[in-house]
Amino acid sequence: MALPVLHSAPGAMAAAKKAGKPDKKLVIMYIPNGIVRRCFFPGEEEGVLPKFVGGFNADKTKNLRKQNKPGIYPLELTETMLPLKEHTKDVTLITGLDRTFKNGQDVHAQGASCYLTSLSPVQAAAQGVRHPNGRSLDQVIGDQVGHKTALNTLEIGCNGFTAGKESIEFDNISWYGPDKIAPSIRNPRKLYDRLFAKSSLRAHVNDVSDLVLADAKSLSKKLASEDRAALDEFMTMVRNIEVRMAKLEKLLAGADVRVPKNEVLPRGKYIQLQADLMLLAFQMGITNIATFMIGPERWEATLRYEGVFDNPVNHHTMTHNQKGKGYLPVAKIDRFHMQQYAYVLKRMKEIKESDGSTMLDNSLITYGAALGDGSTHQYYDLPMIVAGRGQGQVKQGRFIQAKSGTLNSNLWLTLAKLMGVETNSFADSTGVISDLWT
Predict the structure, then answer these.
(1) Do the domain assignments include residue 245?
(2) Is residue 309 part of a domain?
(3) In 99, 128, 167, 342, which residue has its Cα 20 to 30 A from 76's Cα atom?
(4) Three-state DSSP class for 175?
(5) CA dist., res. 388 & res. 410, Å (int)
(6) Which of 150, 160, 219 is nearest to 186 (CA)?
(7) For every residue of 352-387, which 3-state class applies, written as one string?
(8) Order of strands across the sheet with 91-98?
Protein backbone atom coordinates (compact mmCIF):
# COMPACT_ATOMS: atom_id res chain seq x y z
CA MET A 1 0.00 0.00 0.00
CA ALA A 2 1.35 3.43 -0.91
CA LEU A 3 1.33 5.69 2.13
CA PRO A 4 1.00 9.49 2.31
CA VAL A 5 4.25 11.47 2.37
CA LEU A 6 5.82 11.24 5.84
CA HIS A 7 8.54 13.84 6.20
CA SER A 8 10.28 12.26 9.17
CA ALA A 9 10.52 8.84 7.56
CA PRO A 10 14.02 7.88 6.30
CA GLY A 11 14.73 9.61 3.00
CA ALA A 12 11.32 11.26 2.91
CA MET A 13 12.55 14.86 3.05
CA ALA A 14 14.95 14.30 0.17
CA ALA A 15 12.31 12.51 -1.85
CA ALA A 16 9.73 15.25 -1.24
CA LYS A 17 12.24 17.95 -2.23
CA LYS A 18 13.17 16.04 -5.39
CA ALA A 19 9.52 15.51 -6.28
CA GLY A 20 8.75 19.23 -6.17
CA LYS A 21 5.09 20.21 -6.44
CA PRO A 22 2.42 17.53 -6.01
CA ASP A 23 0.80 16.31 -9.21
CA LYS A 24 -2.26 18.14 -10.45
CA LYS A 25 -5.52 16.24 -10.17
CA LEU A 26 -8.60 16.48 -12.37
CA VAL A 27 -12.10 15.33 -11.47
CA ILE A 28 -15.02 15.65 -13.85
CA MET A 29 -18.25 15.14 -11.91
CA TYR A 30 -21.42 14.54 -13.89
CA ILE A 31 -25.05 14.91 -12.81
CA PRO A 32 -27.90 13.30 -14.78
CA ASN A 33 -31.13 14.64 -16.32
CA GLY A 34 -30.27 18.34 -16.38
CA ILE A 35 -31.23 20.82 -13.65
CA VAL A 36 -34.07 23.13 -12.60
CA ARG A 37 -32.96 26.42 -14.14
CA ARG A 38 -34.82 28.81 -11.85
CA CYS A 39 -33.10 27.30 -8.81
CA PHE A 40 -29.63 27.01 -10.34
CA PHE A 41 -28.97 30.05 -12.54
CA PRO A 42 -28.73 33.48 -10.86
CA GLY A 43 -31.49 35.86 -11.95
CA GLU A 44 -33.91 33.15 -13.09
CA GLU A 45 -35.78 32.67 -9.82
CA GLU A 46 -39.01 33.85 -11.46
CA GLY A 47 -38.26 32.30 -14.83
CA VAL A 48 -40.94 30.61 -16.88
CA LEU A 49 -41.37 26.97 -15.95
CA PRO A 50 -40.50 24.73 -18.91
CA LYS A 51 -43.01 22.64 -20.78
CA PHE A 52 -42.07 19.10 -21.71
CA VAL A 53 -40.35 18.72 -25.08
CA GLY A 54 -39.87 15.08 -26.07
CA GLY A 55 -38.52 13.17 -29.03
CA PHE A 56 -35.29 14.44 -30.52
CA ASN A 57 -36.15 18.14 -30.30
CA ALA A 58 -33.34 19.02 -27.92
CA ASP A 59 -32.90 22.56 -29.24
CA LYS A 60 -36.53 23.43 -30.02
CA THR A 61 -36.59 26.21 -27.41
CA LYS A 62 -33.18 27.67 -28.24
CA ASN A 63 -34.65 30.80 -29.83
CA LEU A 64 -36.21 31.67 -26.46
CA ARG A 65 -32.94 31.59 -24.55
CA LYS A 66 -31.91 34.43 -22.28
CA GLN A 67 -28.78 36.03 -23.71
CA ASN A 68 -25.85 36.44 -21.35
CA LYS A 69 -24.09 39.74 -20.73
CA PRO A 70 -20.50 38.51 -21.03
CA GLY A 71 -18.26 39.42 -18.13
CA ILE A 72 -17.12 38.50 -14.63
CA TYR A 73 -19.52 39.09 -11.76
CA PRO A 74 -19.67 38.43 -8.01
CA LEU A 75 -20.63 34.87 -7.17
CA GLU A 76 -24.24 34.52 -6.03
CA LEU A 77 -25.40 31.36 -4.33
CA THR A 78 -28.75 30.31 -5.73
CA GLU A 79 -31.05 27.88 -3.94
CA THR A 80 -29.37 24.86 -5.52
CA MET A 81 -25.87 26.18 -4.82
CA LEU A 82 -26.41 26.85 -1.11
CA PRO A 83 -24.52 23.67 -0.09
CA LEU A 84 -21.39 25.44 -1.42
CA LYS A 85 -21.64 28.21 1.19
CA GLU A 86 -18.40 27.13 2.88
CA HIS A 87 -16.63 26.93 -0.47
CA THR A 88 -17.49 30.26 -2.12
CA LYS A 89 -13.80 31.16 -2.43
CA ASP A 90 -13.05 27.82 -4.05
CA VAL A 91 -15.61 27.69 -6.88
CA THR A 92 -16.58 29.58 -10.03
CA LEU A 93 -19.93 29.36 -11.81
CA ILE A 94 -19.81 29.50 -15.61
CA THR A 95 -22.90 30.05 -17.77
CA GLY A 96 -23.52 30.38 -21.51
CA LEU A 97 -21.99 27.02 -22.51
CA ASP A 98 -23.55 25.06 -25.38
CA ARG A 99 -23.02 21.71 -27.05
CA THR A 100 -23.54 20.80 -30.67
CA PHE A 101 -26.49 18.44 -31.10
CA LYS A 102 -27.27 15.92 -33.81
CA ASN A 103 -30.84 14.83 -34.40
CA GLY A 104 -31.55 11.13 -34.50
CA GLN A 105 -30.17 9.79 -31.24
CA ASP A 106 -31.92 9.86 -27.88
CA VAL A 107 -31.17 13.16 -26.18
CA HIS A 108 -30.17 11.50 -22.90
CA ALA A 109 -27.95 8.89 -24.53
CA GLN A 110 -26.18 11.50 -26.66
CA GLY A 111 -26.00 13.76 -23.62
CA ALA A 112 -23.99 11.34 -21.51
CA SER A 113 -21.95 9.54 -24.16
CA CYS A 114 -20.86 12.76 -25.90
CA TYR A 115 -20.43 14.91 -22.77
CA LEU A 116 -16.64 14.67 -22.85
CA THR A 117 -16.16 14.06 -26.56
CA SER A 118 -17.78 17.25 -27.96
CA LEU A 119 -17.30 16.10 -31.52
CA SER A 120 -19.46 18.17 -33.86
CA PRO A 121 -21.85 16.47 -36.31
CA VAL A 122 -19.67 17.72 -39.17
CA GLN A 123 -16.54 16.25 -37.60
CA ALA A 124 -18.38 13.02 -36.89
CA ALA A 125 -19.49 12.73 -40.53
CA ALA A 126 -15.96 13.39 -41.74
CA GLN A 127 -14.65 10.61 -39.51
CA GLY A 128 -17.45 8.23 -40.41
CA VAL A 129 -18.75 8.13 -36.84
CA ARG A 130 -22.40 7.15 -36.39
CA HIS A 131 -23.10 9.99 -33.95
CA PRO A 132 -20.98 12.77 -32.43
CA ASN A 133 -18.52 10.70 -30.50
CA GLY A 134 -14.78 10.26 -30.21
CA ARG A 135 -12.07 10.00 -27.60
CA SER A 136 -13.21 11.68 -24.39
CA LEU A 137 -11.35 14.52 -22.71
CA ASP A 138 -10.16 12.48 -19.73
CA GLN A 139 -8.55 9.92 -22.02
CA VAL A 140 -6.90 12.61 -24.14
CA ILE A 141 -5.42 14.20 -21.01
CA GLY A 142 -4.45 10.79 -19.66
CA ASP A 143 -2.57 10.05 -22.89
CA GLN A 144 -0.16 12.91 -22.24
CA VAL A 145 0.05 13.39 -18.48
CA GLY A 146 -1.38 10.20 -16.99
CA HIS A 147 1.77 8.12 -17.31
CA LYS A 148 3.09 9.29 -13.94
CA THR A 149 0.66 7.01 -12.15
CA ALA A 150 -0.34 3.35 -12.25
CA LEU A 151 -3.64 4.21 -13.96
CA ASN A 152 -3.84 6.92 -16.62
CA THR A 153 -7.46 7.50 -15.69
CA LEU A 154 -10.06 6.17 -13.29
CA GLU A 155 -13.74 5.90 -14.26
CA ILE A 156 -16.30 5.84 -11.44
CA GLY A 157 -20.09 5.59 -11.56
CA CYS A 158 -22.77 5.76 -8.89
CA ASN A 159 -25.40 3.58 -10.51
CA GLY A 160 -26.06 0.78 -8.03
CA PHE A 161 -28.38 -1.24 -10.26
CA THR A 162 -26.85 -4.53 -11.30
CA ALA A 163 -29.41 -5.18 -14.05
CA GLY A 164 -29.11 -3.00 -17.14
CA LYS A 165 -32.14 -0.82 -17.78
CA GLU A 166 -30.59 1.27 -20.54
CA SER A 167 -27.77 0.90 -23.04
CA ILE A 168 -24.19 1.83 -22.16
CA GLU A 169 -24.59 5.28 -23.75
CA PHE A 170 -26.75 6.31 -20.79
CA ASP A 171 -24.33 5.16 -18.13
CA ASN A 172 -20.83 6.23 -19.20
CA ILE A 173 -19.04 9.45 -20.05
CA SER A 174 -15.54 8.10 -20.69
CA TRP A 175 -14.67 6.65 -24.09
CA TYR A 176 -11.48 5.38 -25.69
CA GLY A 177 -13.07 6.13 -29.03
CA PRO A 178 -16.35 5.68 -30.97
CA ASP A 179 -18.24 2.72 -29.46
CA LYS A 180 -15.19 1.86 -27.32
CA ILE A 181 -16.29 2.38 -23.75
CA ALA A 182 -13.99 3.04 -20.81
CA PRO A 183 -16.33 1.34 -18.33
CA SER A 184 -17.03 3.04 -15.04
CA ILE A 185 -16.69 1.05 -11.83
CA ARG A 186 -20.02 1.21 -10.01
CA ASN A 187 -19.52 -1.34 -7.23
CA PRO A 188 -17.55 0.06 -4.24
CA ARG A 189 -16.14 -3.38 -3.47
CA LYS A 190 -14.84 -3.81 -7.01
CA LEU A 191 -13.39 -0.31 -6.96
CA TYR A 192 -11.71 -0.99 -3.62
CA ASP A 193 -10.32 -4.30 -4.83
CA ARG A 194 -8.94 -2.69 -7.98
CA LEU A 195 -7.15 0.03 -6.04
CA PHE A 196 -5.61 -2.41 -3.60
CA ALA A 197 -5.29 -5.46 -5.91
CA LYS A 198 -6.91 -7.46 -3.15
CA SER A 199 -7.26 -10.54 -5.34
CA SER A 200 -3.49 -10.99 -5.23
CA LEU A 201 -3.34 -10.94 -1.43
CA ARG A 202 -3.44 -13.95 0.83
CA ALA A 203 -6.92 -15.48 0.88
CA HIS A 204 -7.18 -15.36 4.66
CA VAL A 205 -6.70 -11.58 4.78
CA ASN A 206 -10.19 -10.12 5.07
CA ASP A 207 -9.23 -6.45 4.84
CA VAL A 208 -6.25 -4.80 3.20
CA SER A 209 -5.64 -2.69 6.27
CA ASP A 210 -5.13 -5.89 8.32
CA LEU A 211 -2.16 -6.68 6.12
CA VAL A 212 -0.35 -3.39 6.75
CA LEU A 213 -1.57 -2.45 10.22
CA ALA A 214 1.31 -4.14 12.04
CA ASP A 215 3.91 -2.59 9.75
CA ALA A 216 2.22 0.80 10.09
CA LYS A 217 2.39 0.58 13.88
CA SER A 218 6.04 -0.35 13.68
CA LEU A 219 6.76 2.55 11.33
CA SER A 220 4.78 4.92 13.54
CA LYS A 221 7.33 4.49 16.35
CA LYS A 222 10.04 5.94 14.08
CA LEU A 223 8.07 9.02 13.03
CA ALA A 224 7.71 12.51 14.41
CA SER A 225 4.41 13.31 16.10
CA GLU A 226 3.02 15.19 13.09
CA ASP A 227 3.73 12.28 10.77
CA ARG A 228 2.34 9.78 13.26
CA ALA A 229 -0.90 11.75 13.20
CA ALA A 230 -0.90 11.75 9.37
CA LEU A 231 -0.32 8.00 9.26
CA ASP A 232 -3.02 7.34 11.84
CA GLU A 233 -5.45 9.50 9.89
CA PHE A 234 -4.67 7.64 6.68
CA MET A 235 -5.09 4.20 8.23
CA THR A 236 -8.30 5.30 9.93
CA MET A 237 -9.66 6.49 6.59
CA VAL A 238 -8.90 3.14 4.95
CA ARG A 239 -10.47 1.19 7.80
CA ASN A 240 -13.48 3.51 7.79
CA ILE A 241 -14.03 2.83 4.11
CA GLU A 242 -13.95 -0.91 4.76
CA VAL A 243 -16.52 -0.59 7.55
CA ARG A 244 -18.83 1.54 5.39
CA MET A 245 -18.66 -0.97 2.53
CA ALA A 246 -19.54 -3.79 4.89
CA LYS A 247 -22.57 -1.88 6.19
CA LEU A 248 -23.93 -1.20 2.69
CA GLU A 249 -23.38 -4.81 1.64
CA LYS A 250 -25.20 -6.01 4.75
CA LEU A 251 -28.05 -3.60 4.01
CA LEU A 252 -28.49 -5.02 0.52
CA ALA A 253 -28.17 -8.61 1.69
CA GLY A 254 -30.91 -8.15 4.26
CA ALA A 255 -33.34 -6.29 2.02
CA ASP A 256 -36.95 -7.43 1.63
CA VAL A 257 -37.02 -9.57 -1.52
CA ARG A 258 -40.29 -7.90 -2.53
CA VAL A 259 -38.43 -4.59 -2.88
CA PRO A 260 -35.73 -4.16 -5.55
CA LYS A 261 -32.57 -4.29 -3.48
CA ASN A 262 -30.96 -1.32 -5.17
CA GLU A 263 -33.75 0.97 -4.01
CA VAL A 264 -32.62 0.25 -0.46
CA LEU A 265 -29.13 1.64 -1.09
CA PRO A 266 -28.90 5.18 0.39
CA ARG A 267 -27.72 7.45 -2.43
CA GLY A 268 -25.71 9.84 -0.26
CA LYS A 269 -23.77 7.15 1.59
CA TYR A 270 -23.11 5.30 -1.66
CA ILE A 271 -21.91 8.38 -3.56
CA GLN A 272 -19.68 9.55 -0.71
CA LEU A 273 -18.13 6.10 -0.36
CA GLN A 274 -17.27 6.11 -4.06
CA ALA A 275 -15.87 9.64 -3.69
CA ASP A 276 -13.65 8.65 -0.77
CA LEU A 277 -12.30 5.72 -2.76
CA MET A 278 -11.45 8.14 -5.59
CA LEU A 279 -9.66 10.50 -3.20
CA LEU A 280 -7.79 7.56 -1.72
CA ALA A 281 -6.58 6.68 -5.22
CA PHE A 282 -5.32 10.27 -5.61
CA GLN A 283 -3.63 10.24 -2.22
CA MET A 284 -1.87 6.95 -2.93
CA GLY A 285 -0.66 8.11 -6.35
CA ILE A 286 -2.68 5.49 -8.25
CA THR A 287 -4.14 8.08 -10.63
CA ASN A 288 -4.53 11.84 -11.06
CA ILE A 289 -7.47 11.89 -13.46
CA ALA A 290 -10.99 10.67 -12.72
CA THR A 291 -14.49 10.89 -14.12
CA PHE A 292 -17.30 10.58 -11.61
CA MET A 293 -20.91 10.02 -12.62
CA ILE A 294 -23.18 10.87 -9.68
CA GLY A 295 -25.96 9.06 -11.52
CA PRO A 296 -26.87 7.59 -14.93
CA GLU A 297 -28.89 9.42 -17.56
CA ARG A 298 -32.63 8.70 -17.71
CA TRP A 299 -32.53 5.18 -16.19
CA GLU A 300 -36.19 4.52 -15.53
CA ALA A 301 -35.85 3.35 -11.94
CA THR A 302 -36.62 4.64 -8.49
CA LEU A 303 -33.75 5.53 -6.18
CA ARG A 304 -33.55 6.29 -2.48
CA TYR A 305 -32.49 9.86 -1.72
CA GLU A 306 -32.14 9.60 2.04
CA GLY A 307 -33.05 12.72 3.98
CA VAL A 308 -34.94 14.10 0.97
CA PHE A 309 -37.92 11.81 0.34
CA ASP A 310 -39.54 9.18 2.52
CA ASN A 311 -39.71 6.68 -0.35
CA PRO A 312 -37.60 6.01 -3.48
CA VAL A 313 -38.44 8.29 -6.43
CA ASN A 314 -37.84 8.34 -10.18
CA HIS A 315 -35.65 11.36 -10.92
CA HIS A 316 -36.02 11.24 -14.70
CA THR A 317 -39.83 11.16 -14.64
CA MET A 318 -39.92 14.01 -12.14
CA THR A 319 -37.90 16.28 -14.44
CA HIS A 320 -40.67 16.04 -17.05
CA ASN A 321 -43.28 17.47 -14.70
CA GLN A 322 -42.03 20.86 -13.55
CA LYS A 323 -45.19 22.93 -14.08
CA GLY A 324 -46.86 24.47 -11.04
CA LYS A 325 -45.08 23.19 -7.94
CA GLY A 326 -43.68 20.20 -9.81
CA TYR A 327 -40.21 21.72 -10.01
CA LEU A 328 -39.78 21.80 -6.22
CA PRO A 329 -39.07 18.07 -5.65
CA VAL A 330 -36.74 18.05 -8.68
CA ALA A 331 -34.86 20.99 -7.17
CA LYS A 332 -34.47 18.97 -3.97
CA ILE A 333 -32.57 16.32 -5.93
CA ASP A 334 -30.45 19.03 -7.57
CA ARG A 335 -29.53 20.31 -4.14
CA PHE A 336 -28.87 16.77 -2.91
CA HIS A 337 -26.42 16.29 -5.77
CA MET A 338 -24.77 19.61 -4.93
CA GLN A 339 -24.30 18.38 -1.35
CA GLN A 340 -22.28 15.47 -2.69
CA TYR A 341 -20.08 17.88 -4.66
CA ALA A 342 -19.60 19.98 -1.52
CA TYR A 343 -18.60 16.81 0.33
CA VAL A 344 -15.85 16.11 -2.20
CA LEU A 345 -14.52 19.67 -1.94
CA LYS A 346 -14.54 19.49 1.85
CA ARG A 347 -12.62 16.23 1.87
CA MET A 348 -10.07 17.57 -0.63
CA LYS A 349 -9.48 20.56 1.63
CA GLU A 350 -8.75 18.24 4.51
CA ILE A 351 -6.14 16.15 2.68
CA LYS A 352 -2.62 17.56 2.93
CA GLU A 353 -0.12 17.06 0.10
CA SER A 354 3.66 16.63 0.30
CA ASP A 355 4.41 20.38 0.26
CA GLY A 356 1.81 21.26 2.90
CA SER A 357 -0.80 22.44 0.40
CA THR A 358 -4.20 20.82 0.22
CA MET A 359 -5.39 18.43 -2.46
CA LEU A 360 -7.95 21.05 -3.48
CA ASP A 361 -5.13 23.57 -4.07
CA ASN A 362 -3.64 21.18 -6.63
CA SER A 363 -6.86 20.11 -8.31
CA LEU A 364 -9.55 21.07 -10.79
CA ILE A 365 -13.01 19.67 -10.10
CA THR A 366 -15.85 20.35 -12.52
CA TYR A 367 -19.54 19.77 -11.81
CA GLY A 368 -22.05 19.84 -14.62
CA ALA A 369 -24.77 18.18 -16.67
CA ALA A 370 -25.15 17.30 -20.33
CA LEU A 371 -28.59 18.94 -20.49
CA GLY A 372 -29.43 22.52 -19.55
CA ASP A 373 -32.89 21.43 -18.45
CA GLY A 374 -34.43 18.02 -17.91
CA SER A 375 -37.86 18.91 -19.25
CA THR A 376 -36.93 20.58 -22.55
CA HIS A 377 -33.79 18.43 -23.02
CA GLN A 378 -31.95 21.51 -24.19
CA TYR A 379 -28.28 21.34 -25.19
CA TYR A 380 -27.67 25.02 -24.45
CA ASP A 381 -27.06 26.96 -21.22
CA LEU A 382 -25.40 23.99 -19.60
CA PRO A 383 -24.79 24.22 -15.85
CA MET A 384 -21.10 24.28 -14.96
CA ILE A 385 -19.08 24.86 -11.80
CA VAL A 386 -15.29 24.66 -11.62
CA ALA A 387 -13.56 24.26 -8.25
CA GLY A 388 -9.90 24.18 -7.19
CA ARG A 389 -7.01 26.43 -8.11
CA GLY A 390 -4.92 24.13 -10.28
CA GLN A 391 -1.80 25.20 -8.39
CA GLY A 392 -2.58 28.89 -8.64
CA GLN A 393 -3.61 28.95 -12.30
CA VAL A 394 -7.31 29.53 -11.65
CA LYS A 395 -8.87 32.45 -9.78
CA GLN A 396 -11.95 31.37 -7.86
CA GLY A 397 -14.99 32.89 -6.15
CA ARG A 398 -16.51 34.38 -9.30
CA PHE A 399 -19.43 34.16 -11.69
CA ILE A 400 -18.32 34.06 -15.32
CA GLN A 401 -20.99 34.79 -17.89
CA ALA A 402 -19.54 33.54 -21.15
CA LYS A 403 -21.05 34.77 -24.39
CA SER A 404 -24.20 32.74 -25.01
CA GLY A 405 -23.36 29.95 -27.40
CA THR A 406 -19.79 29.43 -26.19
CA LEU A 407 -18.95 25.80 -26.89
CA ASN A 408 -18.40 23.64 -23.85
CA SER A 409 -15.44 22.12 -25.69
CA ASN A 410 -13.72 25.47 -25.07
CA LEU A 411 -13.86 24.67 -21.37
CA TRP A 412 -12.53 21.17 -22.02
CA LEU A 413 -9.64 22.66 -24.01
CA THR A 414 -8.96 25.07 -21.14
CA LEU A 415 -8.84 22.20 -18.64
CA ALA A 416 -6.54 20.18 -20.89
CA LYS A 417 -4.08 23.07 -21.13
CA LEU A 418 -4.29 23.70 -17.38
CA MET A 419 -3.42 20.04 -16.83
CA GLY A 420 -0.32 20.42 -18.98
CA VAL A 421 -1.52 19.01 -22.29
CA GLU A 422 0.17 20.63 -25.29
CA THR A 423 -2.67 21.24 -27.73
CA ASN A 424 -4.47 24.15 -29.33
CA SER A 425 -7.80 22.43 -29.94
CA PHE A 426 -10.13 19.78 -28.66
CA ALA A 427 -13.03 18.42 -30.72
CA ASP A 428 -15.04 21.43 -31.99
CA SER A 429 -13.40 24.04 -29.72
CA THR A 430 -12.76 27.57 -30.97
CA GLY A 431 -10.45 28.73 -28.17
CA VAL A 432 -9.97 28.73 -24.39
CA ILE A 433 -12.09 30.43 -21.74
CA SER A 434 -9.48 33.01 -20.84
CA ASP A 435 -11.53 34.51 -17.99
CA LEU A 436 -10.93 31.32 -16.00
CA TRP A 437 -7.16 31.82 -15.93
CA THR A 438 -5.47 34.00 -13.33
Answers:
(1) no
(2) yes
(3) 99
(4) strand
(5) 18
(6) 160
(7) ECCCCCECCCCEEEEEEECCCECCCCECCCEEEEEE
(8) 71-74, 398-407, 91-98, 382-387, 363-369, 25-31, 289-293, 154-157
Query: Does residue 350 form part of some domain?
Result: yes
Give the span between the Cα atoms of 357 and 385, in whole angstroms.
22
Cβ distance 321 to 57 under 8 Å?
A: no
Cα–chain-centroid distance for residue 407? Answer: 20
List the domain range (segments joined by +) for residue 281: 24-199+265-436
Per-residue pLDDT of the chain in tens (438 residues, 90 and over written 9): 555 656 555 554 445 445 578 999 999 999 999 999 999 999 999 988 988 988 777 788 888 888 999 999 999 999 999 999 999 999 999 999 999 887 767 889 888 989 999 987 788 888 887 777 789 999 999 999 998 898 999 999 998 776 667 788 889 999 998 888 999 999 898 898 888 765 444 444 455 555 555 555 556 566 666 666 666 777 777 778 888 888 888 877 776 655 556 667 899 999 999 999 999 999 988 999 999 999 999 988 888 999 999 998 999 999 999 999 999 999 999 999 999 999 999 999 999 998 999 999 999 999 999 999 999 999 999 999 999 999 999 999 999 999 999 999 999 999 999 999 999 999 999 999 999 987
| CATH classification of the domain holding 85 | 3.40.720.10
Task: Indicate if the alpha-carbon torsion angle 313, 317, 318, 319 is positive or negative.
Answer: positive
Within-domain flag for 13: no
- Is-contact 322 36, C-beta < 8 A? yes
